[in-house]
Amino acid sequence: MTPPNIILSFLCCYLLLIAKPPLTGAASGRWQVLQNNIGITAMHMQLLNDDRVVIFDRTDFGKSNLSLPNGECRRDPDDTALKVDCTAHSAEYDVATNTFRALFVQTDVWCSSGAVMPDGRLIQTGGFNDGERRVRIIQPCATCDWQEVPNGLAARRWYATNHILPDGRQIIIGGRKQFNYEYYPKSSGTTGTFNFPFLAQTNDAGLENNLYPFVFLNVDGNLFVFANNRAVLFDYKNNKIVKTYPQIPGGDPRCYPSTGSAVLLPMKNLQSQFVEAEVLVCGGAPKGSYAQALKKNFVGALDTCARIKITDPNPQWVMETMPLARVMGDMTLLPNGNVLIINGAASGTAGWESGRNPVLNPVIYRPDNKLGSRFETQNPTTIPRMYHSTAILLRDGRVLVGGSNPHVGYSFTNVLFPTELRLEAFYPAYLDAQFSNLRPKIVTPASQTQIKYGQSLFVRFTVTGTLAPNLVSVTMVAPPLATHSFSMNQRLLVLGAGKVTSLGKSTYQVQVTTPGSGILAPSGFYLLFVVHQDIPSEGIWVQIK
After folding, report:
1. Predicted confidence band of residue 114 (pLDDT cuts 50, 70, 90)
2. Which one of 90, 111, 176, 524 has the minimum C-beta count within 10 Å?
3. Predicted TM-score (pTM) of this structure
């Protein structure tokens, strides 16, 4: 039972900020606690195009510390913890006001998946128990709540991965004991499941090591699918593997529960005849670590990253060494094209009580630096972010960090790593005041502007200091759904630096061309940034269609 002094009681569904939270740190990155208690743990997070973040954990944790509004209760005879529960297991965080409200999720969303549709709705799929075949939908608005579709999925989806396709559908791949995929929404001929033997081939008996596979849409329209320690290029339309990539050197697993993370690195030169694509996989746990963790022997995490150019005719993994070993880390693409590696542990694996030695220092990875000089350790947090932690990019360039609950229920006392209800923001160094004169501010287009494929786009911005025209670029970032150390549908496109024109009074205009197709940039909402000398502006929302 949670001690009374930390139980929150809500007369309405918002908790208002009373005082500005203090900042900590100075040198390389800063930390700020935004909320001391949002009532639930941030197991899953998704930023929507109204600058609100949808957060959810699981219904069978027992009572949360966030009451449902207006005396509502969830009555679920199938729930494994509480048949009647008057507390919330989902919340919406309003970035602009630093407030949150309870959301009402009706069935278990534990270890589920999802992605934002082209129209801005979050479609969340699967979960556990009575939630395993559910589809849940939430619109971006101040009063919207979850709507549920019973039996919206053809198969049980628990620990699956979703990705938006060029035609606007989602593909849902894998899950526990599901060596197949399906689509949402359903259409004629796609109502069932499609076998994907690669998932069975990468399943370690009794250990799995292939859940939450890393999935990225390649520039040829096929899917790069990584599971365990290897990957394929998959033609999902014809249910055919078109390329098999080499195994990562060393052969150690990188997927759940030996959880590493992965990103599709920023895509550039989008107008070229051949656009290159690279994937970076970092961290994880050595072979056998999960079985050892169950015996309370916590093996040191992997300290390597593996990088591969997936568009090469003869692709090979290039190994790099991180400054800190890490399992259960998150990888977040920053607006300037760098990668933030954050959260996690230095030993053990994912799973209940299976991680030890929290890694408190994030690391910045600079993909364009020379091999051997790409990593930079950042200032540490004071809050361990272990199993069930998340991190996502916000429109202002901060990274929202939440979660951590390695326990079967909410546990706040007499445990090594208490259930964590605090939300933090990490401020990368580009937000430091010393760079304010270099920081662009977008004047036009306005946020929420619709853009088309292959369109010439003029972006007007101000810079109060001296502009370096050859160090200006425009980037577009697809906000992902983050859970279990993987950010589904995360994507960054560099629109390049076209001609930069001075308009006087510290105002400039840059001309760029938007991505040419839904293969490069699936239709939907993106954050658009102007980057000057590695310093990004605050983003604006654009919808490409």
Report:
1. very high
2. 176
3. 0.94
